Structure prediction request, 311 residues.
Amino acid sequence: MASKRIRMRHLRCFLAVARHGTVTAAAEALATVQPSVSRSLREMETEMGVTLFDRTPTGLVLTPHGQTLHAYVSSGMGQVDRGLEALQDRMADQKVTAYVLPNVVRMVMPGAVRRFKSLRPEVDVCFLATTGGGLQQYLTRGDVDFGFGRLLAARQMEGMHFEHLFAEPLVFFARAGHPLAGAGGLDIGDIDRFEVIMPITGTIIRDEIDRFIIARGLSRFTNLIETISFEFSRAYMAETDAIVCQPLGAMRRELETGQVVSLDFGRGELEGAVGITTPAAKRLSPPAQLLIEMIRAEVQQLGLHNNPGIP
Prediction:
């Protein structure tokens, strides 16, 4: 029967001495001190009633008893170490990090995270609420598990996979009571009479807007405010006649309550695909896969996949 007094530290000291041949070298490998290793060996030999090492001028050599024990312990300890490594890998999967655009943060993510946490409360959820710049780099480096937002430009999709979930329009919004509210057939000149708030250059949404206005003969709006803050845009628009161009999801709540109106400009022409972007060659962790499944379920629940359009 195995001794109940033999501890893991005894076995690790035994294996280290057998491998390195001296107590000093074993202590260095174990990041401990020589007396501690010597004491563990003495305790082990005393407890088992056998000599495990012959002390020679060149170092410690396994005795026949030591060789027998080593054959079993080295194999068993390897299994233990692999088990610990597997556990550490699993523990590393106890967090999901996603790169999420603000419009879907506000519209989809609260419900999706609520669903996820009801199933996996022990898993941390972290998402970067950004405007879309740098997603390819984040995914390539492994900083995030996946991205959720508008489809990247073709040049940025090399090595990436995109799962389309729904189509979302970019909309020109203004406060209720704005001079252009309710006016039909607006053109680019009508919009350019007012301050216009748009995302900063280099973001996915800004690139779409720039292409749209250039196609209508305007290189840039005359009175422009650039920001990635949706909160600033909503607050500033409420106090001024500024016009904001944002994804529908960023303003859906205010649109439904009548705080803002959608202007009759560019409707149906600034629609983009929204979905999940992942590295094509990477297998997602089970928690990441589950969060994506919850995002799909929330999109279905909200009816976004049916492209309901502007309320």
